[in-house]
Amino acid sequence: MNTDSTPPTHTRTHREGSLNRQILRLAVPNLISNVTVPLLGAIDLAMMGRMNSLTAMGAISLGAMIFNFIYWALGFLRMGTCGFTAQAYGAGRMDECVLTLFRGLAIALVGGLLLWAIQTPILRIALSAAAPEAELAEATARYFRIRIWAAPASIAAFAFAGWFIGLQNSKTPMWVAIFVNLANIGFNYLFVFVFHYGSDGVALGTVLAQYTGLLLYIGFAVRQLSFSKFAFRPQHDVRGVGPARSAGPERSPLSYPILWRTVADVKALRRFLNVNSDIFLRTLLLIAVFAFFTARSTRFGSEFLVLNTLLYQFFIFYSYAMDGFAHAAEALCGKFTGSGEKRENRRTVRQVFLWGLGIGLTFTLGYGFGFDGIMRIFTDDAQILGLSRQYFFWIPLITLLGFPAFLWDGIYAGSLATKAMLLTMAFSVLGFFALFYGFCPLLQNHAMWLALTGFLCLRGWSMGGWWRRVV
User: Fold this and answer.
1) ∠285-351-323 over CA atoms, to 5°?
2) Alpha carbons 293 and 305: distance in angstroms, whole number
3) What's the count of helices (H) and strands (E) in the chain, helices before strands?
């Protein structure tokens, strides 16, 4: 008899292979969903480019930037919904999975209506900060006031995406994202080239596409709720008094009145809001760093603004890949936290980091050997290309050292260790500004990239140091 507590080698290999398949099954669809975002923006701009309207292109660029910041700040709803759903799924609490979705959708509805109500001050602040010319400001305002009508659907999509990923299903958000982007392209073509609405047509096409996506999500959710694994008996009688009746078949959770009453359970809702508020504040700090990165670059001169913007594209594509694996870690760690499987949780962390290291090395080598060729895709300006060679080493350095920050975000979110996420982010933001202002007099624009690299390292190291304590 084998008394060794260590599983046989073939058993460990089988489990790791199974875990790797789970990671890839979650990560790859998330990665594809992420890539569709910049692709859609590029197609929108290409359509406007064919109309030879700089004002329309500017309105779309500026308007999209405003919404990107708004929705980036509201992305907390996806992470929070995913974490709660994954833990409930791991614990076998399917009723709590459904309640989490409804709570997320309730917040999405309130958030969307609130954005619509305060759209005027948001627009004024954004245009004041950007200070565009009068014609561009007017076109941007029209674009914004049309597209703001998509806010409830856009925010609800965060809740739906987080819910499906928490259920270990990242394919549904991927297919919805692909369909929404294709619909957006179709609507934009109709309103721009057939009805000649210009940038207003692009905004209207986006609104219709977002509500098309919302209807798809509702359909997929209803189908998901009809599956047998979502049938359950409530812990209490449907009247909320006494134990559940043992007789009778299991039914869909939507058929129990108690579910609708417990959506607004004060204690559960407060915890849901507390977790999401932590993620929201953490995201605002993250936005502050990258907003400062863009705004401060202008002070070094227009050539450095262009340079930093182009170099930042390297980081963006790298972050899409890492976010795919971070979302996989979020779903799996949430599930294993809910089921109490600590060993599987640790194995997930280890395997996700092996994948992250592999992806980081791949990008490091790819950017290292192909940097000049990739830069020439973005620009053929001799001055910018010459400057970029002086900053070349920052890109592979960030891709090699920065991947832990992305992965720990997913692990912490799945474990609902959001207070620690907020505290480590605040610490890292302080480090970012300390590095920048400490080295700026000596290094100038290089200090910006030193601060960004240090910011990512501080996030990774601080969350790594706290992991066993909080997760």
Assistant:
1) 35
2) 10
3) 18, 0
What are the structure tokens assigned to 133, written together?
Answer: 């010319």
Dihedral over Cα of 382, 383, 385, 389: its sign = positive
Please give the single-letter amino acid code of residue 244: A
Residues contacting residue 52 through CB under 8 Å, at least 6 positions apart? none
Would you state the structure tokens that stand for residue 199, as one six-digit string? 């940038």
Maximum CA pair distance of the chain? Answer: 83
Q: What is the pLDDT of residue 41?
A: 61
| pLDDT value of residue 244 | 40
Mean pLDDT per segment of 10 residues, for the chain of length 471 residues?
44 64 92 74 64 73 84 90 94 88 92 94 88 86 94 95 95 94 90 86 92 96 73 39 41 51 71 90 92 82 82 87 93 93 92 94 92 82 86 92 94 93 96 96 93 96 87 65
Partners of 243 in the β-ladder? 236
Nearest alpha carbon to residue 402 among 310, 314, 329: 314
Note the pLDDT of residue 242.
37
Name the token pair of 305.
């603004």
Q: What is the pLDDT of residue 196?
A: 83
Domain borders along the chain are 27-241+251-264, 300-470
Task: State the DSSP string of 274-332.
Answer: HHHHHHHHHHHHHHHHHHHHHHHHGGG-HHHHHHHHHHHHHHHHHHHHHHHHHHHHHHH
Contact of 80 with 275, CB cutoff 8 Å: yes
Taking alpha carbons only, the member of 129, 123, 20 closest to residue 70 is 123
Closest CA to 422 of 301, 275, 288, 324: 275
Reference 104, options 152, 62, 143; nearest CA is 152
φ, ψ for residue 232, nearest 5 deg: -155, 165
Both tokens assigned to 173: 């958000």
pLDDT at 3: 42
Query: So what's the pLDDT on residue 15?
Result: 58
